[in-house]
Amino acid sequence: MDYDVKGNLRRVLGDLPEGVRLVAISKYHPNEYIEAAYAEGQRIFGESHEQELRQKVETLPKDIEWHFIGHLQTNKVKYIAPYISMVEAVDSLKLLKEIDKQAKKNNRTIRVLLELHIAEEETKYGLTLDDCRQLLSDGEWRALEHVQICGLMMMASYVDDQEQIRREMMTARQFFDEVKAQYFADCDYFCERSWGMSHDYPIAVECGSTMVRVGTTIFGPRVY
Description:
This protein has helices spanning about 5-15, 30-40, 50-60, 75-80, 95-105, 130-140, 160-185, 200-205, 215-220; strands spanning about 20-25, 45, 65-70, 85-90, 110-115, 145-155, 190-195, 210-215. The protein is α/β, with parallel strands linked by helices.
């Protein structure tokens, strides 16, 4: 292994205060890199391709907590429903319902985060704040018994301007407080604020993130 996964992982973990968890983004990285991080105690890994994820699930330790971090198509949910711990990027009621349906078939509950589109750059996915308000106020999600909405996630703009990144993350933080108070005040499980990646996770920690998604800083450039 030509990359110091263990050393890099230790450095990232050293930057994270208590209460902030690391999702190690392992997509496009080989099993040996994941095993090196696992040997250091890392248990949460993030993947975004169903076939690659399935192969890893079959060959890696069973106590790994797998998060699906990319855009998830509804027709792929059934393949990951037996084992996924969390779907981090739910951007529609349709997807939420499909996750519920497939989780029910597997007799389990799948945790999810609602994905917000706050970044000023045009990305394809995520709910605007008003879309998210609408989804929650419509209330259909309340009837879903096999998904658990555990919080929010977002990706800040990929820019050098730290103030812009901070502004976007603080918008998400304030919106989390609004949603928590209005819909989840009595739900301890609604507690996750997932923002921050390799280039901006130190800012994310300042902006109330509870979960950062770091890949390149730990594993190096992706191996396609």
